[in-house]
Amino acid sequence: MNTVSETRLRARYAETDRMGVVYYANYLVWMEVGRVELCKSLGFDYRDMENEDGVFLAVAESHCRYRAPARFDDEVIIKTRVEDVNSRIVIFAYEMTLAGTGQVLATGHTRHVFVNGQMQRTRLPQKYHGMFGL
Amino acid sequence: MNTVSETRLRARYAETDRMGVVYYANYLVWMEVGRVELCKSLGFDYRDMENEDGVFLAVAESHCRYRAPARFDDEVIIKTRVEDVNSRIVIFAYEMTLAGTGQVLATGHTRHVFVNGQMQRTRLPQKYHGMFGL
Amino acid sequence: MNTVSETRLRARYAETDRMGVVYYANYLVWMEVGRVELCKSLGFDYRDMENEDGVFLAVAESHCRYRAPARFDDEVIIKTRVEDVNSRIVIFAYEMTLAGTGQVLATGHTRHVFVNGQMQRTRLPQKYHGMFGL
Amino acid sequence: MNTVSETRLRARYAETDRMGVVYYANYLVWMEVGRVELCKSLGFDYRDMENEDGVFLAVAESHCRYRAPARFDDEVIIKTRVEDVNSRIVIFAYEMTLAGTGQVLATGHTRHVFVNGQMQRTRLPQKYHGMFGL
User: How far is the C-alpha of A12 from the C-alpha of C46, rounded, in Å?
Assistant: First the structure.
């Protein structure tokens, strides 16, 4: 898989903390924003995968390295790609940079298992295999 | 209805913003904490009302007056009571104070309509009437 | 003041709750997004007002009426305007609608007092008067 | 260091998402709750370290493995300990379990560097060395 999606957002006041920088958990929210955008780039809406196919991406692992702080109203670019995938598991990789300077703010990845609405493991439906490069 | 529930929490770092105080939207989260506690005081778990009876409290209105800022690690007391209720609607009132000094941080109310899982209006089931003082 | 800013965002998964809709406190975060955008429309960055002039918009009151639920990945338009302003206080009004249909999701307002970095009341600096229509 | 702090919280409605479980970024918020509690167990308030000594724990890395979903109103126990520490860096380890059954919900760690108010690297002040077991 070579598709890399790129999406932009601005750091919200709500996302900062009293240290004056973006609170560390919010980078995982930004990863979600990147993930949803990547799905659109791959050819589907993640919402439809849940609503129409009853398949959910349950998070099994998250990892983030914080390299430079993001601040209120900073424009951030999130680059997202599939790092690894099979019919059971998908790993996404992320890079978040400052739009103005290209400075790397954070990098990370998340590992997900495909589950059904009852949180039981399932397989990625056939129709998505091509989009994920399987 | 005279029941007033009282619950305590500590302001989290995540809840502060770069002004060094608790971000204003988080007081609505604290109201939810108070509401859930009030339900327990009234004799039921709000979770069961959703899971077992399929009745949800959809928020129709929120109002909050911010009187003094809460800061990281402050212990906050949330007092919650039913201000008005009928079989269609319930209004909760809240007062949040600083545990150490009694200083009022915020007051507010939320108005809710009873809905089913499809977000359609419904009535409060008979079994809850006594608990709500109807 | 007749300036109305318009900004768009997509409801994040993080912003939904187990009822399947956007959690009510997050509309106040969206109001902040609208507010920051309105400042840009009026001719300044709110970040600069804080960083360069040491003037902050402390929230004194929030009010929101929830008219229809927003759901994950919905595109939302936030219209923001100054409803009232003097050198001590500013009131912003908001309307949030669904981009596709124009359906009104929520309306509300927030009242703010100008404070300094020590959270003491101050006046809006002269340089901003014109931008706010004073 | 053998001190393990234990703190309890209840999963908030705000913390759930439309999958009906606690959203993955919120576990990092819970880690913060555990961290603040561990500092109290070690003999100081983290707030004082910031306010009085101007020393902050900037997060450099976070890692979380999600083992079972937490749901609304679940009582969760967070066990926190110092995994490694020197005068420049501290690593905290966390285990989150369900209070009723002991089921492990998540495990993880965070790595922090000591910084001053300008986000520049500094050393842990001498007065804290004993408390951290240095």
Answer: 12
The subunits that touch chain A, with at least 3 C-beta pairs less than 8 Å apart, are: B, C, D
Residues D4-128: name the CATH superfamily: Hotdog Thioesterase (3.10.129.10)
Q: Where are the domains of chain D?
A: 4-128
ipTM of the complex: 0.97
Say whether A48 is catalytic. no
What residues have CB less than 8 Å from D17, skipping those under 6 apart? Answer: C13, C14, C16, C17, C18, D23
> Closest Cα partner for A64 from A113, A29, A28?
A28
**3-state DSSP call for residue B34?**
helix
Mutate to test the interface with C, among B21, B64, B96 (most CBs of C within 10 A): B64
For chain D, the farthest-separated pair of C-alpha atoms sits apart, in whole angstroms, at 47
Closest CA to D38 of D87, D4, D73, D84: D4
CA distance A72 to A75: 9
Q: State the pTM of this model.
A: 0.98
Task: Report chain C (134 residues): mean pLDDT per 10 consecutive residues.
Answer: 91 97 98 98 97 97 98 98 97 97 98 95 96 92
Largest alpha-carbon pair distance within chain B? 47
- pLDDT tens-place string over residues D115-124: 999 999 999 9
Secondary structure (DSSP) of A31-79: HHHHHHHHHHHHTS-HHHHHHHH--EEEEEEEEEEE-S---TT-EEEEE
**B4-129 placed in CATH 3.10.129.10:** yes
Contact A17 B21 (CB under 8 A): no
B18 touches chain D (CB under 8 A): no
A23 contact B CB<8A: yes
Contacting D residues, span 86-125, partner chain B, CB-CB under 8 Å: none
The third-level CATH classification (topology) of the domain covering A4-132 is Thiol Ester Dehydrase; Chain A (3.10.129)
**Residue A15 pLDDT more than 80?**
yes
D57 close to D111: Cβ distance less than 8 angstroms: no
Q: Does A18 touch chain C (CB under 8 A)?
A: no
